[in-house]
Amino acid sequence: MVHDEAPGYAPPTMPRSTPDHLLQQGPHAFPPARRRAVQRRLLEWYDEHAQPFPWRTARDPYAALVAAVAAQQTQMSRVLEVYARWMEAFPTLASLARADRAAVLQTWGRAGYPRRAVGLNETARRCMEEHAGALPRDPEALLALPGVGPFTAAIVRTFGFGDDAPAVDTNIVRVLGRLVSGDLQPARDTSRAEIDAAAALFPAGEGARWNPALMDYGARVCTPRPHCEVCVVASMCAAQPRFAAGEVAAPVSAQGTFEGSERQARGRVMQVLRDAAGESVTLPALTKRAGATTAEERARVRILLGRLAEEGLAWTDGRRAGLGQRPSKM
Ligand code: SF4
Predict the structure, then answer these.
(1) What angle do CA 297, 302, 308 make, to 5 degrees?
(2) Atom 2 of ligand 1: nearest residue by CA position
(3) Residues 6+ apart with CB under 8 A from 33
(4) What pLDDT does 320 receive?
(5) Which residue has the higher pLDDT, 73 or 118?
(6) Domain that holds residue 131
(7) Could you tell which of 222, 223, 229, 230 is best to mutate to test the pocket of ligand 1, judged by most ligand atoms within 8 Å of the CB?
(8) In ligand 1, which atom is closest to the CA atom of 228?
(9) Confidence at residue 4, expressed as pLDDT on a 0 to 100 scale
(10) Are 180 and 152 found together in one domain?
(11) How many domains does the chain have?
């Protein structure tokens, strides 16, 4: 593995400077030659190791939107499953706009956080009404759509339109925070201002390669326990000397346990409603199929059902319940 240094590089020996100066001066400076070296090496690594996800090369803003929304807080194996299912059921923004809420929730299935499916459905309708049936290219207009945050907007812009828009997700924060700020656990220690400054490493005209390059690098090399020994930018990384000296990244607090959680209980209720395949279910049947056996558990299921109804994910009239919105004819 080549670990040659780029011209102008000085090893980090002092505390980091202010975010404004992060890439311009001080021990962690990234002068132009060093920036180009980092960009070139990470892009070359990406060209050899890119994950062949279909939305990355489709040049389809809608495909990029679906993938970005599905990827939020979700493992990639699940993203691939829900993406394939979703694109088969709703291959275009127009077909998604025509779908009813029960159908989109049914298709989302067990992918978790079903509000995301509703958000996609609402976004498609808004695009039909306000953007001539297409996703807008303008960042402000994208951010105004339901469920579209900075990460999703950046993915739609880079994969969908080929624009330059730095994305920020867990893996990207980890790579940039270590590389530029020298933090071992950037998710906890690196400020947003520093990550924004590090985004200046973004190579112009390379958005569709740079964002996924950092994502894949964070997933495979600069992992929570990084593989610095095979890293193509190790010689320019502010954190590498710390890892080499034996320091370790403290674990970030994991999500609470799923077993026994409200999220798990909500998931069970949603599963019962999906299993009804478009039909409504009586509340006694719902509580039974959700596994509630005591009066307390049955009450809990009814409370959860009420919350799901408030969020627009289910409906109930006090006797029966169903997925999505209550059909007009019953
Ligand atoms: S040297 Fe280690 S910490 Fe730095 S970017 Fe490479 S893998 Fe990550």
Answers:
(1) 125
(2) 228
(3) 6, 7, 8
(4) 93
(5) 118
(6) 60-161
(7) 222
(8) 2
(9) 26
(10) no
(11) 3
- Listing from the earlier edge strand, what are the strands of the sheet with 281-282? 281-282, 320-323, 314-316
pLDDT number for residue 316: 93
Sign of CA pseudo-dihedral 258, 263, 268, 272: negative
Location of structure tokens 């970030």: 252
- Predicted TM-score (pTM) of the model is 0.84
CATH at residue 286: 1.10.10
Q: List, for residues 225-266, the tens digit of each pLDDT value.
A: 999 999 999 999 999 999 999 999 888 766 667 777 888 889
Atom of ligand 1 nearest to the CA of 238: 4
pLDDT at 329: 65
Is 217 a pocket residue for ligand 1 (Cβ < 6 Å)? no
Residues 144 and 288 in one domain: no
- In whole angstroms, give the CA distance from residue 112 to residue 275: 15
pLDDT attached to residue 268:
92
Q: Are residues 68 and 155 in the same domain?
A: yes
Q: Are residues 82 and 147 in the same domain?
A: yes
Among 185, 210, 244, residue at a domain's last position: 244
Cβ of 45 less than 6 Å from ligand 1: no
Give the pLDDT confidence score for residue 192 in this predicted structure.
81
